[in-house]
Specification:
It is found in: Cytoplasm. With about 150 residues, the chain is mainly beta. The protein contains 2 helices and 13 strands, in the order E-H-E-E-E-E-E-E-E-E-H-E-E-E-E. It has an 8-stranded antiparallel β-sheet, with no helix packed on it.
């Protein structure tokens, strides 16, 4: 499910080669309409870095997901981010994970586009299909479909 409201973009459109060339894994990106992230899956939080610019999680099926809020946001050193979860928390679809100051990030970071990446996609043995939708509704829009190869 979509972790935030906004405009859906192909990962290849993210202006950062780490994401656009899928070095981190398969995925999709969303240009946020507001500063709220919700859980896209039922699973567990495995990482909220001290810089608070991202959330790492693992689903019940072993899918590892990274939600990276904006580009070069690690430089903000946590300013503008308010985590609602911590490492080890169990979460369900739609549960709030993070709030962020969208205007602050627009002013101080390279970009607000938010990649949602399956970090273990290369060796998962699964196939990932990205949505054709243009608009994401948090907790409602299916953005990635996972199937067996």
């Amino acid at each position: 499910m979509a972790p935030l409201n906004g405009e859906i973009k192909a990962l290849e459109e993210v202006p950062d080669p780490v994401f656009s060339e899928k070095m981190m894994g398969e995925g999709i990106a969303i240009v946020p309409a507001e500063g709220k992230i919700v859980s896209p899956i039922d699973g567990e939080i495995v990482q909220v870095p001290d810089t608070k610019h991202a959330v790492g999680m693992v689903g019940k099926d072993g899918t590892e997901i990274l939600i990276h809020i904006g580009l070069e946001t690690v430089e903000l050193k946590g300013e503008g981010f308010t985590p609602k979860v911590q490492t080890g928390d169990k979460v369900t679809v739609g549960q709030p994970l993070m709030e962020f100051d969208l205007e602050y990030i627009q002013e101080h970071a390279k970009d607000v586009i938010t990649p949602i990446v399956i970090t273990n996609s290369a060796n998962s043995g699964k196939h990932y299909t990205m949505t054709n939708e243009n608009e994401a509704k948090a907790g409602e829009t299916v953005i990635i479909t996972v199937s067996e190869k």
